[in-house]
């Protein structure tokens, strides 16, 4: 299962030039702000072990911090303005203090 916070930003400049311009700006901003909130922002590709007996998480534990991945993706669709973002918060994710995250 994916246990990292994922931030997916439309950066498909071929579909909409605004996304091609704003996507990288938003990516950099999310990476910076998440790092300030003590997230380990991982930019390396996800390593997936497809072995059936492997029940570990996708990704890898790095330094005990919460992990966030931020990336540009192709056209999400249906958006009128650039800056369309999908944020995935894994089930059971907790906010500071141990309370359940409202989006998890």
Automatic annotation (TrEMBL):
This protein's name: Altered inheritance of mitochondria protein 32
Entry's family note: Belongs to the AIM32 family.
Organism: Photinus pyralis
Organism classification: Eukaryota, Metazoa, Ecdysozoa, Arthropoda, Hexapoda
InterPro entries associated with the record: Aim32/Apd1-like, Thioredoxin-like_sf
């Amino acid at each position: 299962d994916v246990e990292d916070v994922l931030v997916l930003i439309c950066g498909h400049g071929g579909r909409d030039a605004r996304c091609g311009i704003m996507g990288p700006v938003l990516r950099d901003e999310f990476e910076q702000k998440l790092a300030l909130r003590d997230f380990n922002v991982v930019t390396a590709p996800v390593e997936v072990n497809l072995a059936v007996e492997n029940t570990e998480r996708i990704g890898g534990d790095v330094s005990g911090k919460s992990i966030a991945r931020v990336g540009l993706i192709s056209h999400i669709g249906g958006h009128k303005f650039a800056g369309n973002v999908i944020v995935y918060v894994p089930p059971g994710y907790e906010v500071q203090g141990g309370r359940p995250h409202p989006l998890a």
